[in-house]
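Protein modeling request. Please complete all fields; requests missing the sequence field cannot be processed.
Requester role: graduate student
Desired output: 3D structure, token encoding
Chains: 1
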Amino acid sequence: MVDTTVDITINKAVVSLVRGDITNETLDAIVNAANSRLAGGGGVDGAIHKAGGSLIMEECRKIGGCKTGDAVITTGGNLKAKFVIHAVGPVYRDGKHGEDKLLASAYKRSLEIASARGLRSIAFPSISTGAYGYPVDEASQIALKTIIDFAKANTDIKIVRFVLFSERDMEVYKNTLYKLTTVE
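Delivered output (184 residues):
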């Protein structure tokens, strides 16, 4: 059995890893692993739309779409979080088509949007590792490095939490976080 929570402080931010359901988070914003049409879907996307209610989809329709590597923000609807940031990660092909840059950009844009809105806490899923097929080992390195780099350069977001669904993902993210923070 893996630890259910891991916390590490980077600059002024606490970066946390937890196992759980992102729709239950009470932070300022949760991030949705969205598709470029913002049309809802399966996995995290479907769970967030189902738990958050129709207001989220209404706002997504008004926005119209989002490019891969970018993010947009909507209400949290019926969720405990005030906002949902819809980040569009890449579909993994073979790692040779700029997927790493697009995935890093999806995380960074989510943080930039949260910061611009004055939000202080944000929860992420593991973007692109479900139906989009991104290998969790590689995705965790990109995600955590992007978060760590952002936290080192910015002090406004105080809590960045990864809410991981499976025990395996939790273990991978935990190992990656330790590697990235003990090397420095």
